[in-house]
Amino acid sequence: MTQRAWWLVMAAALLIDWQAPAQAADKKPLSEVLYEAGVLTKEQAAGVQETVWPSFVDRATLSSDLRVRHESFFKQSDAKEVDRHRQRFRLRIGAKIKVKSFLVVVRVASGTGEQQSTNQSFDNLFTQKAIWIDHAYVAFNSPSAPFLTLAAGRMQNPFTRVYTSDLVWDDDVNPEGFAEQLKFSAGDAVIFVNLAQLVLDEDSGDNHDQWMMGEQLGTTINAGAVKATLAGALYQVLNATEGTFGSPATQDGNTRVGGVLVNRYHVMDLMVALSTKVGDLPFQVMGDYVRNLADTTTGGNGVGTATGNVGYQVGAILGKASDPNTWETAYFYKVVETDATLADLSDSDFGDGGLARRGHIAWVAYSPTKFLQGKVKFFMTKSDGVARDDINRLQADVAIKF
Q1: C-alpha dist (Å) from residue 373 to 53, 81, 376, 400
Q2: Residues ≥6 apart with Cβ < 8 Å to 95
Q3: What is the number of other CB atoms lying within 10 angstroms of the CB of residue 186?
Q4: pLDDT for residue 14 is more than 60
Q5: pTM of the full predicted structure?
Q6: pLDDT tens string 259-293
Q7: DSSP character for 42?
Q8: Residue 161 CB partners (closer than 8 Å, separation 6+)
Q9: 284 neighbors 319 (Cβ within 8 angstroms)
Q10: Range of weakest confidence among 25-39, 273-287, 302-316
Q11: Beta-sheet pairing, 120-121 with 189-201
Q12: Which residues contact residue 50 at a Cβ distance below 8 angstroms, ignoring those fewer than 6 apart?
């Protein structure tokens, strides 16, 4: 969908929304309610001091969280790199504000401006840390068409994902552009269609702007004690070989010459997740398979060499650390080859982040209260490159919602 077509769809949806019934009248002040109920006289009601809040406060939902992390890297490589230990934090503060059929979402977060991380390391002699715009988007959902949601801006990822989806999308990546989401019920199943037109990089000196066009079709089926989610997506990168994206972070993987991608990317992503219970404990089994359908043998610039174009991740999670005195444990195995997808959007925690690596992921987490969680996570990875670059990574987190 082009930009022009997206704006036409938005205009049509607005016209439909304007035909919807008017919303309920504004709430009455407490003094007026008490007067009408006969609790106060008119004179007494007139003397009541009302608390005046900005109107948007009644329509806003606030959220915030803070995570403190210790992280260790244990490396065995031909470059004889030393082990590394660091401490980090992540702070996020956001709000969702309802304006009739619109939802305005804003969030700020810590970090260094990288697209796939909101972490900030303790470093540089106590120098102050930066806050960045993490979310800034508007979503439109009309009562006249509740099955359709339109969004524009720097948004929460519009595609349905599970843990294994970090093959393609790091959890901290917030795409920029336009999205359309459709959802329909059919008996015990929900069918969803997610579309997005995402701006990767815009250059003023040419007409080779880089975009990602994504289409996802899937369903969620409730079959008694088992809930199943299946989805397939295609992500096509336009003008992938025409620039470097201009991002501050470049991750391992992808064939490049002078920082420019050699290959094109037309990524197929197939996902399945099954949820049930083992005794009283939630239990999830899930898997994700990606394949770059573009030719990675000759490369987009005609200078590429044969590279791997496949990735997959499978595993399970037992329990769910969310309510007071709950816990979870998990294990996953991941393989992702050099040009299976865009490395700079993929998981930033696997090895040193990115692709061209295989290995194991395991964690255990415990929530003593609903707002507090402790988690220990371990990665054991090996490089698929010619040189040895084995990395084991340990993360110990304490996270609090407030």
Answers
A1: 33, 33, 10, 7
A2: 60, 61, 62, 63, 105, 106, 107
A3: 9
A4: no
A5: 0.85
A6: 899 999 999 999 999 999 999 999 999 999 999 99
A7: H
A8: 169, 271
A9: no
A10: 25-39
A11: unpaired
A12: 29, 30, 31
* Count of beta carbons in the 10 Å neighbourhood of residue 257: 12
With contact defined as beta carbons under 8 Å apart, do 151 and 139 qualify?
Answer: yes
Residue with token string 């403190």: 68
* Alpha-carbon 209 to chain mean position: 23
Q: What is the pLDDT of residues 99-127, one digit of tens each?
A: 999 999 999 999 999 999 999 999 999 99
- Whether residue 106 contacts residue 94, with contact meaning beta carbons closer than 8 Å, is answered with yes
Distances (CA, A) of 131 to 60, 128, 220, 378: 21, 10, 37, 28
Strands 176-186 and 148-154: antiparallel
**Reduced to 3 states, what is the DSSP secondary structure of residue 255?**
coil
Q: Is a pLDDT exceeding 90 seen at residue 214?
A: yes
pLDDT score recorded for residue 20 = 46
Longest dimension (CA), the chain: 86
